[in-house]
Amino acid sequence: MPLTPDQQAEIDSLRSQPQDTLRTVAPGMEKHLYTAHPVLDHGFVRVVDYMGDDAAICQAARVSYGKGTKSVSNDEGLIRYLMRHWHSTPFEMCEVKLHVKLPVFVARQWIRHRTANVNEYSARYSILDREFYIPAPDALAAQSTTNNQGRGAALEGEEADRVLRILQDDAMRCYDNYEAMISDEGQQGLARELARMNLPANIYTQWYWKVDLHNLLHFLRLRADTHAQYEIRVYADAICKITADWVPAAYKAFEDYRMGGATLSARALDCVRRMIQGEEVTQESSGMSKGEWREFKEVIG
Amino acid sequence: MPLTPDQQAEIDSLRSQPQDTLRTVAPGMEKHLYTAHPVLDHGFVRVVDYMGDDAAICQAARVSYGKGTKSVSNDEGLIRYLMRHWHSTPFEMCEVKLHVKLPVFVARQWIRHRTANVNEYSARYSILDREFYIPAPDALAAQSTTNNQGRGAALEGEEADRVLRILQDDAMRCYDNYEAMISDEGQQGLARELARMNLPANIYTQWYWKVDLHNLLHFLRLRADTHAQYEIRVYADAICKITADWVPAAYKAFEDYRMGGATLSARALDCVRRMIQGEEVTQESSGMSKGEWREFKEVIG
Amino acid sequence: MPLTPDQQAEIDSLRSQPQDTLRTVAPGMEKHLYTAHPVLDHGFVRVVDYMGDDAAICQAARVSYGKGTKSVSNDEGLIRYLMRHWHSTPFEMCEVKLHVKLPVFVARQWIRHRTANVNEYSARYSILDREFYIPAPDALAAQSTTNNQGRGAALEGEEADRVLRILQDDAMRCYDNYEAMISDEGQQGLARELARMNLPANIYTQWYWKVDLHNLLHFLRLRADTHAQYEIRVYADAICKITADWVPAAYKAFEDYRMGGATLSARALDCVRRMIQGEEVTQESSGMSKGEWREFKEVIG
Amino acid sequence: MPLTPDQQAEIDSLRSQPQDTLRTVAPGMEKHLYTAHPVLDHGFVRVVDYMGDDAAICQAARVSYGKGTKSVSNDEGLIRYLMRHWHSTPFEMCEVKLHVKLPVFVARQWIRHRTANVNEYSARYSILDREFYIPAPDALAAQSTTNNQGRGAALEGEEADRVLRILQDDAMRCYDNYEAMISDEGQQGLARELARMNLPANIYTQWYWKVDLHNLLHFLRLRADTHAQYEIRVYADAICKITADWVPAAYKAFEDYRMGGATLSARALDCVRRMIQGEEVTQESSGMSKGEWREFKEVIG
């Protein structure tokens, strides 16, 4: 369970106090506010705040004085146009602030997205909780035999048991020792900023993460992708659902043009043109490498 | 007058429709929402949206589950601490979106602050209005005789009249010709993206500008400074007032530590120590250049 | 002529003094160093400095200890892989610094690319030169009748003459008045920071612009595109040629995957699949809007 | 020893091949190129490439055609002026690329500086080495009793031994298990991207880190500061020495205005003025909190 009763009470109290505002309100997002969506075994994603909605994208694109929308269908068309033509600045006019609890090794991938604001729980200042990510059986995957940075089928039987035991035992022992080292009972107690170095990368951390919609969608495109590591993908998937409720038109355009779309190279476009003319194109006649051809075939079906 | 009746009506309509939200509401900011604060002769600053308040800064700094505030006085102390120790990320957790109308030469300085989101009115797509900045008499200043990039006293008499006439005539003539060139009556009509090149830099443009509080304060420190050009300083001053109403504790800390504070060099600190000991320090014995010494004396009084 | 004899002498002197370095040297780029490539009537692009080459991209991708290259063909394959899979960080490991002279209205588009370093010639501090962009006859285009932010055919006859005369006369008059206002002969002289507001947007400015290769390629994709305004496209074209000499493998991959490639939406991919199966797809049966369909047909041929 | 003989041989080979360049060469930096400066027990900092020198800062500030320097003393004065007045863009015109080997918990602090380019060794793709940071006896510090995020005196006797043993044993056991889990002998072998989660935060990683001089100096100000954690400070110290050789004038100005300087609040400046007048100011009469007053006294001496 990711939240203690105290934390849940704090959240419930916030959810029970609607206030008046003159700002744009996105009804689909209000229902997500503060609610902790569970991810992995101890993680979550919570919306702490947001700014803007679909209409705000159009309002900015038009630099308008009022709400910036003539009609919903006009707005949808404009949003699709902006997305198709890579006009990123109107999407930057929406912003979201999330509270995320996530394993450290996921946090290290996540933080590589630089155009965002982050406040992480400080393990120099505070003591980390005894919470570690231990993969569910179907996420305990073998190294891929074809892709150096991917994973294959789930481990089975003996091996799966052995790995789980290792992960659990090492996590517990390291945390026991972490506690023992920082304890000031009968000893000086090691500085927290040093003791944390004994903790494995599956320990949970948490942060506030604030990002604009353009950069959020870029994050989602890379991290909700099937090639992303499963453990970050589930966070991206949870955020996708939230985003779909927040800015439905923008999210739909994103699904069509980014998630469901594909970038074809000049060579690939040439092949497509030839194939439409009825030519039988092979890897050899395509001018592509084997890897490119395989990816091309996946796209073209 | 910066707003047409239509624009004013659109704004009034927005201001008359409060909605329920579960988000943090900053009462001091709600009253500014949409209102156009006039700046210079045709410009303005309008708050279009905002995210967060003083408590949100503390909430992020504590990565807390709830509102993040124990008491207002605790929050003030924490905010002062964060400001004093250059902890910038909690301030990044507040965001504001402004609609600004401003002369092009001011826009060109403003845009140099890169960590912000901008949507500018497109003069490729649309036709600019006939609105030019013409300085008020007391802003019509002579070149400074001591500072290559500053200005001195206001021009007087004849010269002031001559300059005003030039600015007005050139603006009007250039705009007449802009209109004449793009007109499609009895001719093809020059492309707007080309015709705009005939317009002087005192023509007004407008944009949506979105920025986090940390970067906003950095902008204000540089642009509300007495060394900033007057024409951008008046915008910064207007935003200072808005910010003081939005995040009063953060703004107060900003005033104390940034606007009213000063960075002293190692040499300057050494002089201060000697002066406190009663030593009579001169420029010669200070180790500073003349320029540094003059600036030091201004700070030390 | 963009350079004075003094400026040319300074450049020649720099070009005549090769020095020893242990850094990576890109021979194709050395030949461009300092040379001013003319653009438009008074503008130019000059390479002031650069860091890295094709091998440096691979070296960073491999976080290697040595040069990071096993063989040129390996490097090319890796670079194509990185480009195809949107791995941007290795391309960020190359950097270039350009000195660019350009009209102000072009500078205003250019500066919207925020992830770059810029030092612009200060018209608060210095006096601008009397140099204005006046379009060549074939660049003096009419407003497009189909695209609100595009241009159509070149103006002809009378109208072309009239427009040219206007642009020239207004530029000269505004500049004469600029000089008259800042003159301190027999008067105080208006502050430069104010006087510049009288100058039209076709006056030339100049800046140092430093950017990493990833962001440079992004800039080139948008600004060397046929939809970009001609006056910025010619700068992008000049930089494309320089880049092709600097990092030939990266530039080739860029041409294939970005400039010559296209992003197809989920809908568009679906149509492609149906067309390859032999189906006759029309706009109506495509599920696309008219605009999307037209753009799709342009890509598919 | 941080480098294997093979790695050293690669580096030596690079150092033995000077090439001709027309670019600016910084002699003080050439001597650092590729050399691995040891930091902590297994870490290092190596300069992989650089762009610019002191003169390049001035050249950019002046947007000059040639080398941009009249004389060294002029340049020094200009650099001091730019530093004093927070003109950051000319310093952004120098760039450095480092190869750094560092413990993961240090990397996690470091990466918070977002305005930089990073390529980290991928533990999804590759197998990490068995190298862990184990503090030297004098760095094995107790938790500070006065500062929640600081450290006090070194641990002594028994406790120090115990902590060292824990850190070593847990590191070795976790690494043994990491190897056992990814092994494909007689089993499928856990995916590397998962197995890495078992490794404690004192394991070493490495990356290429590229940053401009302005942002580097900002990093150094925060991380070479006495309040920074020792383990990142030693990296910052090593980079300070390199920077002093690379851009001596800029580094000197940085030492005077940033590292050795201090920002005083409005209240603090008021106290300074009163103290110079001979007044005996106490915490009570200062208007400062106890924390502020203590920090103020440290600065004022």
TrEMBL record, chains A, B, C, D:
Q: Where does dUMP bind?
A: Q109, W110, I111, R112, E120, Y121, S122, A123, R124, R196, R223
Which GO BP terms, alphabetically? dTMP biosynthetic process; dTTP biosynthetic process; methylation
EC number(s) reported in the record: 2.1.1.148
Catalytic activity reads: dUMP + (6R)-5,10-methylene-5,6,7,8-tetrahydrofolate + NADPH + H(+) = dTMP + (6S)-5,6,7,8-tetrahydrofolate + NADP(+)
Cofactor binding mode, per the note?
Binds 4 FAD per tetramer. Each FAD binding site is formed by three monomers.
Record's InterPro entries?
A: Thymidylate_synthase_ThyX (IPR003669), Thymidylate_synthase_ThyX_sf (IPR036098)
EC top class, as a word: transferase
UniProt binding sites for FAD: T89, R112, H113, R114, E120, D212, L213, H214, H218
Going by the UniProt record, its keywords in alphabetical order are: FAD, Flavoprotein, Methyltransferase, NADP, Nucleotide biosynthesis, Transferase
Cofactor(s) this protein cannot do without: FAD
Q: Where along the chain is the active site annotated?
A: R223 (involved in ionization of n3 of dump, leading to its activation)
Give, as in the UniProt entry, the pathway in which the protein acts: Pyrimidine metabolism; dTTP biosynthesis
GO MF terms listed in the record are:
flavin adenine dinucleotide binding; NADPH binding; thymidylate synthase (FAD) activity; thymidylate synthase activity
**Its quaternary structure?**
Homotetramer.
The family line of this record is:
Belongs to the thymidylate synthase ThyX family.
Functionally, this protein is described as follows: Catalyzes the reductive methylation of 2'-deoxyuridine-5'-monophosphate (dUMP) to 2'-deoxythymidine-5'-monophosphate (dTMP) while utilizing 5,10-methylenetetrahydrofolate (mTHF) as the methyl donor, and NADPH and FADH(2) as the reductant.
Question: How is this protein named in the record?
Answer: Flavin-dependent thymidylate synthase
Q: Which organism is it from?
A: Roseovarius halotolerans
Question: What gene is this protein translated from?
Answer: thyX
